[in-house]
Structure formats: structure tokens, C-alpha cells
Amino acid sequence: MNPSELLRIVDSLHRDKNIDSEIVFQAIEAALVTAAKRQYGEESEIVVRIARENGAIDASCNGVALDPEEMIGRIGAQTAKQVIIQKIREAERDALIEEYQDQIGHLVSGVIQRAEGGAATVTLGSVEAILPRSEQIPGESHHPNERIRAVIFEVKPQGSRVKVVLSRTRPQLVQRLFEQEIPEIAEGVITLNAMAREPGYRSKVAVSSMDQRVDCVGACVGVRGNRIKNIVDELAGERIDIVRWSDDPEVLIPNALQPAEVDQVLLCDMIGRAIVLVREDQLSLAIGRRGQNVRLASKLCGWDIEIMTAEELEEQIERAVHGFSTLEGVTEELAQALVEQGYLSYDDLSVIEPDALMEMGGLTAEQVERIVEQAEELAEQAEQAAAVERRRQREQQVEDDGDAGLAVAPAQDAVEPAAPAAETPDQAATETAEVESADAHEAGGDG
After folding, report:
1. Domain edge (last residue) among 118, 151, 169
2. Half-sphere exposure of 286 (CA within 13 A, CB side)
């Protein structure tokens, strides 16, 4: 093997395949060792070294120097070629994996080659990527030769090839589109602080500005909404709410619940809950269609948000204090303290930190354990009772509609009437949730 020719091969593979020269040298050395063992025996101790500077081959068998040209016969040369090709393919695959792993979460553009069985095959330069049905925006369809933008979601080896999985449902897609369409974000003047998304339906993006002269919300919307329109069009019409970020949850939460108007925010730090009080006419707007507005706001802010009116809160507090006071070991003062910390149901109480309850009520570990056991039992009973009541009401609804000669629409079946007034905190919470759900459905929410 001519040293100058060997160096030329190594340099060519390094430039054309983007493979490190050292990996190529090691592959050739391994191939020559394999070929030599075919000729001198598998038990032979073969050592092959290639000088990186001039390509000279130094080989030995059991300590005896070998002539590189003589040690590789016809079969050995063929074996060496196969091993080199295999090693080069593996190195090429590893180089591609490294290249695309660095791009995970980044926006890429490709052309759809095939769209079969819901999944789409996308050409990305040197590799073919997969866009699974589960990673496509609901309702959209793709066709061959269509140009598409997505984020790289996963990269992994698959035999001698690289499997690159794309996604159009991840929040990173919205983030990258904002960075691409809004120069102030790319320049660092505007920051994307938080994001929550339900693909194909709605996203909420919280932004802030490093420069007081730049309106972060206005810059993202653009003149006559042209900037946000480009992003919405790319996301198949998905609605995007841009809200102003604040480090103060009492400011951020009302912003996140827009367009609903919020009267008051009560933070329950111990359990990460925020009770948001709104007027009756704002209730369905704050909750949103099928609870979407409050669900996305909770994800955006990192708080478990509960929407209710002041009257509903007062009713829940009364029931919670009364319910907790009936538990063995809980005084009325402790019940009041628990409610002030945001514990409004037996279910809440069943997951309280024992140390916190011991400190609040001056209780022993045994007393706390007994209280939690009672709360767990009553929470389970309330859940079973609520399930029975919901089933009974559904059956009654079906029977009433049947008598009237009406068909039951799926949307009507999904909304259940509020349960009768309950004496336990869990039942009270169930009643409120069902009332909110029904109100949201009837009003249609804000979409």
C-alpha cells in the first residue's frame, strides 16, 4: 500500500465525508490487523501502526517485523477493504449523529419526499428525516415536494444509518418561529420567558423587554399584526396569545388569563395553588372553551390556577372549615389555618406534608398520620359518590332525551350538571368544578 496514496485516501474521506482523520487511520489499522490474522492465524499477535505524518506502515507479527506488502494476500486485501468500508460507514454515521444532535430543538427546513400512513419522510440535506403522525399539528396534511419547517426532536442510530425525528407539535417550534420572525428577540432586546402550547389550537407566550422604549407585546404582534400572522400561518391557524411577563405571580396570572378580567388573585404557596376570583360574567371567559384558557395559563405561570367567583369561594371555605373540623384531631382553629393556606378539600389534605401539619397544629406524628388517613378515606368516598352521581345524571339525561324523541349530541353528554350541595370539602370542590365546566361550555368560552 503506497504511503502517499494512503494519505490521499485519508484526506479525501476527511473532506468529503466530514470524518476525523484519526478515525480513518484507526479504521485502516484495524482492517490491516484483521487481514493479517487471516493470513498468519487468529492467535497471532499482530501490531500495525501508520505514521500520521507520511503514511508509512509499520507492522509486526509476534514481535517480528513484517513487510506490509507481503503480509496482505489477495484474500487479506479483500477483507481489509470490507473492514475499512464498514468502519468508514460507522464513522460517517457517528459524524451525522453528532451533527444533528447539536441541532435538537432547532428549526430546520426540508422537502417532503413521501407521505404514507400518516407519517411523512422529509429530506434534510444529507439525511432523510421522519415526521410521525403524532408529531404533526392536528388537522394538517402534507404532500410530496411540499417545503416544511419543523424542529429536530430526536436523533439516534439505526443500524448503519441515522434516524432523525422531526416535530411540529413541540413548544420549541413556536419559540424558533418567534426568533426568526421578530428581530428584537434574536438581538436579545425581547426575551421569551415562558410558553405553553396545545398544538393546532392555542399557545400562550410570555415576553419581556430589556429596553423600556420597546413594547415587547407590540413588537411581537407587528404593524397590523403582520409578524404574528406569519407565525400563525406557519402553525396552520393556531391562535397565539402574547402576554406581558412579570416575576410577580399576582401580576403574571391576570395577564396570562386575558382576555378575561380578574378581580383578585389569592396565592397558596404551600400547595402551589392560585385562587383567581372573577365576576360571574367573566367566569366562562377565564376558563375558556373546555378549560383551555385556564389550563394554558397554569402551564405558563407554573401555578395550579382555580377560577371561581367570590360567592363560590366563600361557600367552599365554609364547607372546608366545617368538614375539616369533623376530623378527629382537627380543631376549628387548625381547620381555619388550613383553609387560609389553600387546603379546600379532603383530597388536598391527604397530600399535605406531615411536618407542615405538625407545625401548624402543634400535633404529634401519630396524630398527623391519623388525620391524613381520615382525609384519604373521605376523599375516596367523595370521588366514588361523585362518579355514581355523574353516571346517574347521564342515564337520566339519556332517558329524558329518549322520551322527548331527541338524539343526544356528544358535546351535551360531555358536560355534566353540577352535583347537589355536599357536606365535605371534596364534594364542594367537585360541585364547583362541574358548574364551571358547564358555564364554560354554554358560553362557548373565548376559544
Report:
1. 169
2. 25
Helices 365-403, 354-361: axis angle to 10 degrees equals: 110
Q: How far apart are CA 417 and CA 439, in angstroms?
A: 10
Contact 409, 201 (CB under 8 A): no
Question: Of 216, 206, 210, which Cα lies nearest the Cα of 240?
Answer: 206
- The three cell numbers locating residue 416: 355534566
3-state SS of 131-164? ECHHHCCCCCCCCCCCEEEEEEEEEEEECCEEEE
Say whether the peptide bond before residue 259 is cis (omega within 30 degrees of 0): yes
* Helices and strands per DSSP (H, E), number in the chain: 18, 14
145 close to 151: Cβ distance less than 8 angstroms: no
Residue 272 lies in a domain: no
CATH number at residue 254: 3.30.300.20
Whole-number Å distance between alpha carbons of 245 and 252 = 6
User: Which is more confidently placed, 260 or 28?
Assistant: 260
Q: How far lies 396's CA from each of 253, 422, 432, 435, in Å?
A: 39, 20, 21, 18
Q: Is residue 303 part of a domain?
A: no
Taking alpha carbons only, the member of 19, 50, 17 closest to residue 33 is: 50
pTM value > 0.90: no
- How far is the CA of 280 from the CAs of 41, 258, 287, 308, 386, in angstroms? 88, 16, 12, 8, 25
The count of structural domains within the chain is 4
Intra-chain end-to-end CA distance of the chain, in Å: 72
- H/E run at residue 178: helix 171-181
Least confident of 29-33, 68-72, 253-257, 343-347: 68-72
- Write the DSSP assignment of 58-69 as a string of letters: EEEETTEEE-HH
> Are 289 and 190 within one domain?
yes
Same domain, 258 and 176: yes
Residue 268: in which H helix or E strand, if any?
strand 264-268
Residues in the chain: 447
**DSSP-derived secondary structure letter, 104:** B
- Is there a domain that residue 179 lies in? yes
Question: Which one-letter DSSP state was computed for residue 51?
Answer: -
pLDDT in tens, 271-283: 888 999 999 999 9
Paired sense of beta strands 64-66 and 107-116, if any: unpaired
> Do 336 and 439 lie in a common domain?
yes
